[in-house]
Amino acid sequence: MATSVKLDANLKRRIQHLAEIRHRSAHWIMSQAILDYVTREEAKESFKQEAIASWKAYQETGLHVKGAKAQEWLKSWGTKSKKDKPSCHN
Prior knowledge:
Elements: H1 9-22, H2 26-61, H3 67-75
Helix pairs in contact: 1-2
């Protein structure tokens, strides 16, 4: 799939300069930048969708974990006295 992108002269120069100092092609620099952007945006969207699903589940069930209990559990990670995951309640 061939795609074209219009870039202003300043950005073209910056990409070319970066390509030269990295010993890469301008195409590689642009492809990598797009890949990085899309990967980041997909992760953001996944997080957003998970948050929406969690909020919907909370609204339907009322089940939750209090913040203090969650923090206590998280702070125990990586320690010799790791605590069990707190249970949800209404």
